């Protein structure tokens, strides 16, 4: 979607009402800030706001103060003109990037060019990671900073803005975002987006557990446990639901179900699945599971695997091989691009962390999405979630676009992902 401030539907200010949901967090970054009204309106919906600005002639101290004193707002700042990004992230629903500042003109009247990014777009996570980097680099706009900046702002000459810029340099220093290096080893492990991600994962996990309970209550297995684990069989059930029932149109029409209504509809689909034709699960999935388990089943297996074996196993993941749709030259081209973009050592570091390191496994999945040390090109959130579901030590279920859409169709209140 394009927001270029053409009325009535493409005015950027309207994004705040379109995409703000109660309880979410707004992550906003713009060098110029003079217009707090849409943020104040959003705060009435009990959201939280993290805001990054640039102190200087185009950022109004009074506007900052109207937000700073709100308990759900945290502000950080740069002073260098090198900070020029405009980023608007509405929880995990949508991100907007483009030319518009947080000013009346930027959000209402100027001719601007701003585009939306959905979570299904790989660039969505890139934008989130960039905001996180800015947030770590920026300084806290606390009461002391606010008093100092307000004093400089009030005494700036009406006809000249340069003295204010000089005062900011004198009082605050001159700094912008640090350089971003791919694969940097000392990047802090920030939790800015991880906590929100964990909440979404928790909701998915509760929904999957309810479905698994219904599956167990039906009292059958299509394949025995020693051929594929139950979580993989249920993933194939959800794949069948997606293919035969859960079209995008059907998902949009499907209500959120609760209690007996949810149980009855899940049971109905499971009963239909019991005798449904699904040759892919019967003929292909067992071999895929053996292949991926041979390479990623244990830390020793993984450490002994060569480059080709690792890539062969990754191709078992639907989310990874799905990239063939966007890769000229087929499978071999995708393999070469993945290696060229990341390097085998970085690939092994990330996969080892995801599958075998200690600590919270959901946080390790999030690390592969947001943490600069572990984030890989051509290996986004669906890849990390799916691989952890296939062979993760905690036996988490597979979470990808197919499972989330199918669960939503059945009636579970889960976020749809790529």
How would you describe this protein?
The structure is a single chain. The protein is an alpha+beta fold. The protein folds into two domains: 2-172, Endonuclease, Chain A (2-Layer Sandwich), CATH 3.30.870.10; 194-410, no CATH class. It has 20 helices and eight strands. The chain has helices at 14-19, 37-43, 61-68, 104-109, 122-137, 143-154, 162-172, 194-218, 230-244, 248-253, 259-274, 279-296, 299-304, 307-314, 318-321, 330-342, 344-356, 361-370, 381-391, 401-410; strands at residues 2-3, 25-29, 48-54, 73-78, 87-90, 94-98, 114-117, 139-140. The protein has an eight-stranded mixed β-sheet, sandwiched between helices. β5 and β6 form a beta hairpin. α3 (61-68) runs antiparallel to α6, α8 (194-218) packs across α18 and α9 (230-244) crosses α20. It is globular.
